[in-house]
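ESCALATION

Customer reports they have been waiting on this structure for their group meeting. Please prioritize. Original submission:
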Amino acid sequence: MFETRLEALTRGPLQVTATPLARANKALLERHFAAEWASDIEGTMATIHPRDPWQAIPALGTEVRGFGAVRDHYLARFASWPGPAMDGFDRTTVTETCIIVEGRLTVRPRGDFGGMPAAGAMLSAPCVMVVDCRDG
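Update from on-call: job pushed to the front of the queue and completed.
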């Protein structure tokens, strides 16, 4: 089981807007991490808003839109690089409309990574993750 509480994962500042909606967004992201890092597709997708979801990783050329495409993206991610992609966060900001996480992406893929052959290679790069939040 992976630690998913933002308080434990964030090495630097953790800022959470003091509203019920921002606290709900924080809890939702923590549930998302628990499911994603366990490669639980149903649990992961339960945290994705059903209306027009998307996933974009510009550095990898990844941009998918729609619930089915996002699901396929996560299934491919679970097959290639399961578990956490970041071992902690340098800074996390949680608001009523979005969550911003800054840190370092570090993965050792089992196969392709973002469409590039990378099996067994350690890949590491600075990363900023922006999560749009809807409805808490």
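Sent to customer with the following note: The mean pLDDT is 91.
Escalation resolved.
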